[in-house]
Amino acid sequence: MVIYLDSRGNIAGTGDPGGVVGRAEQAGRAAHPPALELSGFPKDQYDLVDWAATIMQGKIKPRDAIDPAVPEVPPFDLDIVIITKSKYQPDVVFSHKVHTMWLSCDNCHEKIFKKKAGGNPEMHMTKIAAGEYCGRCHDRVAFPLTDCLRCHVKPKAGTP
After folding, report:
1. Closest CA to 55 of 98, 7, 113
2. Which residue(s) pair with 154 in the sheet?
C-alpha cells in the first residue's frame, strides 16, 4: 500500500479541502511585488507569473550567464519521458526546450541530474517536495508541485 503525503506531510486527502494546499498556493494568494503586477506577464492557474509563457511571448529574454562574454546557446529541443513508479499516475514528459530557454545545461547537469535517461532512479515526489531534483526550482521559483498535470502528461500504456 502506498501512502501519499501532501506538501505539509499530512496523509493526502485528510486535510481541509477548502484550505490552502501549500507554500505555492499561499504565494499565489499573496500580492506580487508591484513591478511584477504591472509587468503584464502572463499568469498561471495559481495567479503566479508563468515564466515559460513570459519567455515565449518575448516579454523577457534571459541570458545564459551574467558574463556577457559567455556565448548564447540555443534551447536544446529534446523531450524525455520519466516513467513514474505509480501504476496510475501519468508519466512525466520533461521538456529540455522549455527549461533551456531559461537555463544553461550546466545549471542542472551533473549537480542535480545525471546526464542520462533513467540516471536518477531514486527520484520520487517525496524527494522533489523536499527540494531535491525538480524541487530545486518547482514549488520555489517555478510553478507549484500541486499543479501535477503540468508535468504528468503521458498516460500509462493501456490507460485511456
Report:
1. 98
2. 91
Render pLDDT for 33-45 as a digit per residue (tens, 0 to 9).
666 666 788 988 8
Identity (one letter) of the amino acid at 83?
Answer: I
What stretches of the chain adopt beta strand conformation (E)? 79-82, 91-95, 152-154
Bridge partners (DSSP) listed for residue 79 = 95
C-beta atoms surrounding 150 within 10 Å: 16
Place of cell 521538456: 95
pLDDT band at 96 (very low <50, low <70, confident <90, very high): very high
- The answer as to CATH 3.90.10.10 being correct for domain 23-154 is yes
Residue whose entry in the numeric block shows the C-alpha cell 500504456: 157
pTM (two decimals) = 0.71
What is the secondary structure of 79-97 as a DSSP string?
Answer: EEEE--SSSSSPEEEEEHH
Between β-strands 79-82 and 91-95, what pairing exists: parallel, antiparallel or unpaired? Answer: antiparallel
The DSSP 8-state label assigned to residue 150 in this structure reads: G
- The DSSP code for 143 is S
Return d(Cα 2, Cα 152) in angstroms, integer.
18
- Please tell me the total number of residues recorded for the chain in this structure: 160
157: confidence class by pLDDT, cuts 50, 70, 90: confident
